[in-house]
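Can't attach files on this board, so I'm pasting raw text. These are the components:
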Amino acid sequence: MAGPVQSIERAAAVLRLLAVGRRRLGLGEVAASLGLAKGTAHGILRTLQHVDFVEQDAATGKYRLGAALLHLGTSYLDGNELRSRSLNWADALAARSGEAVRLGTPLERGVLVVHHVFRPDDTFQTLDVGALLPLHASSLGKVLLAYGAAPPDPDRDADGPAAYTRHTLVTPDALARALAEIRELGWGAEIQEMSMGEAGIAAPIRGHGGLVVGAVGVSGAVERICDARGHPRPSLVTLVREAARAISRDLGAARW
Amino acid sequence: MPERYVMSIDQGTNSTRCIVFDQRGRMVTVAQREHRQHFPRPGWVEHDALEIWQNLKRIVPEALSAAGLDTGRIAAVGIANQRETTVLWDRRTGIPVARAVVWQDTRTAPLVEELRRGPGEDVLRDRCGLPPSTYFAAPKIRWLLDHVKGLEQRARNGDILFGTVETWLVWNLTGGPDGGLHLTDATNAARTMLMDIRTLTWDDGLLDLFGVPRAILPEIRSSAEIYGEAGAPLTGVPLAAALGDQQAALFGQTCFSPGDAKCTYGTGGFLLLNTGTEAVRSRHGLLTTVAYRIGDAPPAYALEGSIAVTGALVQWFRDRLGLIGSAAEIETLARTVDDNGGCYIVPAFSGLFAPRWRDDARGVVVGLTSYITAGHLARAVLEATGWQTREVVDAMNADAAVALGELKVDGGMTSDNLLMQFVADVLDVPVVRPMVAETVSLGAAYAAGLAAGYWPDLEVLRHNWHRAAQWLPDMDPDDRAWEYENWQRAVERSLDWVRPPRKRKRGSGG
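---
Top answer:
Structure tokens for the assembled complex are below.
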């Protein structure tokens, strides 16, 4: 096993230093206190700032602990922020796939729909932003489960996970196998697991450091989502994964 | 034959963007670059026109190579541009005589005040469709002629060219000093205060009024026709369209029929209503403008309601007050409360635009009590955009024959669901967002593609339009009326705030 990573040890020391009395410290103070070269301290502070663990005061240039540290356990990406950053990509996915697009983030043992683009056929459709989908029976939810973005035990009811259809994965074994496959493939599907005649394909959206913060996917009639053999259409899978990658790239970029 | 595409160039206030679209109107690739904003004095806003041209020369190859295309695959290129921003340059060297004076610039306020007293608003509205305002190009030209040494004489000698930004780019794209085409389109010319809104020709009376020599003016052409072939970096590609950005958005939203309207929510808000071949003279504070002109067809006109501050209020909330970390978080904060708690914000940062046109107004926050939280303020910020839209729509309904039945929206703020629902609620009509949010670019591409025969007709373009989201009104009529009344009372409190400047001992220079 490899030894400790020096830069992470130093980053931890910087955080501890800033946490003492919740002070604001200048670059020189941080470097001197920890016996680091200024350039090294600066690199660490900038990285911590990039992940929102440290904030820099605009007027004085001094550093302090970032608000994100106080909310480590909760979702760090605002759902409205995610929607606004993914707007163009979600539109492009709907236009190219011809299917409805949804983005989801984990919320209280479910998937919160934070963005919804209509299927581009101009039929009457209703926005379901704000709706909650089941983790184990939606493609968005299964992807969030597979990448640890949502708690692994989807439903602690005495009856076990709800069986929406005869295809719903209700046993822990079946679900675990499905999640392992999603991790291997990099995308997931749901075929008539929430309602008969419907299917969906989803892929993970990653933020800083690769952490999965949400999922994006298409859903619609099973005969459009799947091919004649009942498998998700490869062309749709490619489009969904491309959109997910494009959104992830945008999220990793500097905040606007 | 390999697939061909249409390119659009959106030269905006903050950046220049180059987007390639396919036959179905879908975005293939995008490249963009920001340019510097110069604020040399309070109220002054300038751009470096050469920097904008350099940016364009960089992003066009970027967009092409990102999509693996060469210019041979581009069927046509169209330009959409920030409107009214004024460039004067030397026709022999291609060097601008000064930085471009941007549409937001208010340095011409004294001149505009003279116009109000002189020929008066009615005369100007009849002739060019516009009320006197610092917003438009002619006062900016006059200012430059007065303040750049020797410029007036050089202009009269025929050494100087004027253009809004599309004119500047077309001239450079077609050779610059070496035979560059000097032309504008009717939508851009409609924002100068120099064009007769009915004949679409430069008006001698208006030229005299502003003292603008005819020699500096570009030829007024249609918004969609093949102007010529571009040189580098688009060698051989037909230059086939130019439109002001808001008219381009109207076109991109496929608002081709009288009664169709769209609102673009960016820094400001711009609501345009297609009025068909009739130039409707507004009695309720709207602008009469050209919507587009395709080839030799008669022009389509529009009524326009411009709102100075919509997204800019959210930016202020983020950057100046620091109550949110990003623009999108305004919705999160606003959802922490159920209503505005009795608080209203009127964002008259530099007066009020349509339909009130009041320079003397300044922003107010009213209804503050110890009960009000940041969440209530966030609500009031979003509601300000909704109510300002309502005022413009009321003016349009009063001016036009048919009441608005549905509002098509685009722009960055359409990602805010709470706001879009509120707009539907206060207008009491459905609000619809199209699949392609980049309607400005799409409109320029559509116009260019039509002119070049890439798309056969408007009907095909209509079929490219798809609904991406829709918000239906869901507000109690009594609540709506009550809240609207409160908003209007808040606006009254913003008026008549600015007083003439105090007399100082020393002159202000300039």
